[in-house]
Specification:
about 45% helix, mainly alpha, single chain
Length: about 90
């Protein structure tokens, strides 16, 4: 599963757990998972399509850094940038 789909699924799951759809309630359900998403490995199109509508559940500084990285890819940000996932495939 690519990072955009993973993020989308986590956000949708969190929203599904909160009948009142408030960002604070969704954050309670997703806060354990959000730090494990590699936001900086997600394409700009996926961020705009899947994350932007729900960006209120993210830390404001993280959202600012995600947007800044697309505008100026070489600029440093304060958020932690996780390395790409490495999926090992073993031949049988």
């Amino acid at each position: 599963m690519d990072e955009g789909k993973f993020c989308d699924n986590v956000i949708r799951w969190g929203i599904a757990q909160t009948p009142d759809l408030s960002p604070n309630s969704a954050l309670c359900y997703t806060q354990k998972f959000l730090p494990h998403i590699r936001y900086f490995q997600i394409t700009c199109d996926e961020v705009l399509e899947k994350i932007q509508p729900h960006h209120r559940i993210l830390e404001p500084e993280l959202w600012k850094d995600i947007m800044a990285k697309f505008k100026a890819p070489n600029k440093s940000v304060t958020s932690i940038i996780l390395p790409p996932r490495i999926i090992s495939v073993t031949a049988s």
